[in-house]
Amino acid sequence: MKVQDHASAAAAFIADEPRTDWHDETLWWVRQKRDKAAHGLPEWEQLRSWASQIKDHTLSHLDHYLEEFEKNALANGVQVHWAEDGAAHNRIIHNIIRNHSIQRIVKSKSMLTEECHFNEYIREQGVEVVDTDLGERIVQFRNEPPSHIVLPAIHLKKQDVSETFHEHLQTEKGNNDPQYLTAAARVHLRDKFVHSELAITGVNFAVAETGAVVVCTNEGNADMGTHSARVHIACMGFEKIIPKAEHLSVFLRLLARSATGQPITTYSSIFRKPRPGQEMHIVIVDNGRSRQLGRPDFRNSLKCIRCAACFNTCPVYRRSGGHSYHTAVAGPIGSILNPNLDMKANADLPFASTLCGSCSNVCPVKIDIHEQLWKWRQVLVKEGYVAPAKKLGLQGMAWLLAHPAVYRLAGKTGRWVMRRMPFLVNNRLNPWYKQREMPTPPAQSFRDWYLKNRKS
Amino acid sequence: MSARHHIIKAVADNKPAFVPLPDINLDQVTGYDDLAAQFATVVQSIGGQVVPVPGWEALKPLPQAERAAGKWVVNAVPELGATDQEVSSMDAVQLAGVDMAFVPGTLGVAENGAVWLYESQMINRLLPFICQQLVLVLERKALVATMHQALLQVDTAREGYGVFIAGPSKTADIEQSLVIGAHGPVGLTVYLIG
Lengths: 456, 194
Hints:
The complex is a heterodimer. By secondary structure, chain A is α/β, with parallel strands linked by helices.
C-alpha cells in the first residue's frame, strides 16, 4: 500500500475544520498543563540540564552500561535477549509465546512494539494480543495505529469511542459519557487481566546498577498484567538505560510534568526480579539505534524519554494529527528519528515543521530537535530523497538569489503581474494561494526604497 | 557473532567521546516548610485523600468495621492486627473480588503525593492494583520533600519489586476527560500517622 506523505495526509486531516480546531486546542491545553507544572518548580531548568547531562554521559559509556545492566538482570533471574532489528524482536517474543503454548496475552503501552510492527506480525502468526492501555485498546478495536505516543486516541472524539465501544463492547448506542465508557472498558479489560498468561510491557527506564526496569502508567495496566501473568516480557530500545537508581529522581520528576502536567504518573513500578514461579524476560533492541549513535548531528535524539511535550507544542502536529506522520513515533521527535529507520520512506517528515524551535524549548532532556530537523533536510536533499519538484525549486531559488540583476527583474515582474493580472497568481495552480490570500504587492522593492531614501 | 556481540560492538564503535556525570546538588532543589500540608494538597489534587490520625490506635477498628459492612478487606498492616497472609498464594481471578486493601507505605513524597511500597509490604504484588479501594498507611515522619530524597532513602535493589503510587488509577484517554478508576483502585486514602 502506498503511504501518503505528510502533506497529503495533513491536507485530508484539515479538510474538517472544526475537528482540526478541536484537535489543536486539545493539545494546546495539554501543553498549558505542562507549563503550569514546569513553572511550579524553580529548579526546572536545572533539572533539564541534569537530565540532559546524565543522558549525554550514558550515551558516551553505553556499551559498558549495557553489559552492566545485562549482568545484573541475569543475576536477578531475568532472561535477557538481544535483537538487532524489529523482525528479531518480534521473533524472540513469538518464540517465548510458542514455547509456553500461551493463548491469552496482554500488552501495556510500548512504542517500541509499534516501531517493530509487532501487532501486525503477531496477528499474522495467529496469536491475539490485547492492548490494555485504554487509548491503545480504542485504536486497536478500530484497526488504527496510535496517533500520539502518550495519548494514543487523541484524534478521536467521545462520539467515535462510543460507536467503537457499542460495536465491540455492546455499550448503549449514543451514550458518549467518558465515565460510562471508561467503566465499560474497565470491566472488559479486568477480565482480560485476570485471565492473562503472558504480559508484555514497554520500559521507561532501565537501571544499569540494579538490572531493574521501570514502567510508568496512570491506569495501572502494566502492573495488572504483569502481576497476573506467569510470564512477563519487557521490551526496550537500548537507549532506555540510565546508570543508577538515584538518577530516576531526575527523570521521574520531568517525565509526567512534561507529558501531561501531572507531578508524577500514578504508578512508577520498578521490576527487578520475577515473583516466585514467574518468568521474566527483557528484550534489548537496536533497530537502527547504533547507527543513529554514530551520527554526531543526530545522536542526541537517542536521549528522548518519550514524553511527547514536543508533539503538544508543535503547530504542525496540532494541526495535522499524528496519523499524517505515517510512523509509530509522530511529531517533531519522530521526524528526526524516522529518517534514520528509513530515509526514503520518511524523507517528507523533516519538512513537516516550521522550524519555530518550540519543540527544543520544551524538551526535558534538551534535544536540539529543530536544529536536527534542519540538518536532516540537508542530508535528504544531498542523498537525493527529496521530490524533484522541490529540489528543482530550491535549485532555481538558489540560482536566482545568486544573480542580483535577475532577482530584481523577477521582483519587478512579479509586482507588475500581481497588480495588473492578479488572476495569474490567484488561482489553484499556484500552491502558495492554497488557503491564503496573496499579499498586496508593494509599489516598490525595499532596494528601490533604500536607494531613494538613503540619498535624501 | 551473536546479536548481543554485534550490538555492543556497534555501540562501542559509534559512541561519542566520554562525558562525565553531573553533580546533583540537592541545595538547588525545592523544599517545603510543611511536608504534610504539601503532601495532602497534592494527593487531593490527583484524586486521593489524606487523613491525619494521631496514632495507630485510631486506625485499628477500621478493617473490622469495613468487614462488618460485608466487604472483603485484606489487611497487610501488622500494626492494625493480624495480616491476611493467605492472599500471598491467591491468583488474579481470586483477588479480583477484593473490595479494600490496607497496605503500609515506606515513605511519602511531598512534591507529588507518591508513596513507596516494597513488595514485602504488599503480601501479593497484585493487591495494591486489583483492590477497589486502596488504603495506604504512612507515618508522618516518613515524608520527604522530593524524589531526590526518596530515591536516596529507598533501596530499589533490596527486593524484587517496588512501586511509587500517587493517587487512584486514572485515565483521560477519552477526549481528555479525567476519569478516576481506570483498571486499578477507584479510590485511594492515605492515613498519615503522628
